[in-house]
Input
Amino acid sequence: MSKQTSSEAGESDQGYRVPQRSPPDAPTNPVQSANRTMELIEVLKEQEGATIGALADHLGVSKGTVSNYVSTLREEGYVTKLDTGEFAVGLRVLDVCNKSIRGRELFEEGKPRIDALAENFEGVFTVMTPEHGYGYCLYSRTNSDLISKNRLSQGTRRYLHCNGPGLAILSAMDSETVESVVSRYGLLSCDTGCEFDCPLAKHARELPVERDELQTRLETVAEQGFAVTDHGQIACLGVPIRGSGETVVGSVGVLAPQRTIYSDGAPAEDLVEAMKDVATGIGINIV
Output
């Protein structure tokens, strides 16, 4: 794995600005109203709509308090009211997300290359970037209707240890950063309390569930230059993207049927080499 230090992996005053990849420090003086606002948005996201009463029950506060929060967020467009009388996440959030995603060089450099991969191979292709110990899909594309794109859709957040693109990123991180990620989030699965309703994790096979297993897995991934995870009849392949100074800035990933990922029992060489070429092309253009 790369020997760069966590300080070197942080933001830089020059060149590509790398988001913090390790989990953030706990706030010294957390603002309760900010926490409650984010919690309210998360509840609306998961529930896909909720009444004031339901929100009050989830948050453990009075209906009056929730009503004040909701009316403020509605005024700013972050919450909307449905014709059912329920409230849902507003489209102003989409505007913020689009600005965040499209303002990143990784998206701009990755999009045309991901599109090209999707034209030539079967599967859902994505460019993933690490932030705060999670992996986020910045852009995804598929020309196949055999696999649901929402498993690795744009904006999807995943743990790094339970999918090919995430493992590829972890393999290129320094040991200190990997340890900070594992210490904060553990190596969770569906059986051990994973927070995501993730179709990948539900069918995952032989994922690392102990720290020693993860270390061995990452060493193998670093040596071969790619990671593969099996998920029932499909598999997930990832290749790390390295920017200036060999800093890992993300990964190129694909979710596809086993027959696409494997050839004669091993990862298909043409697919692996095509993804490595794309990762290299993105990396050298991140300046």
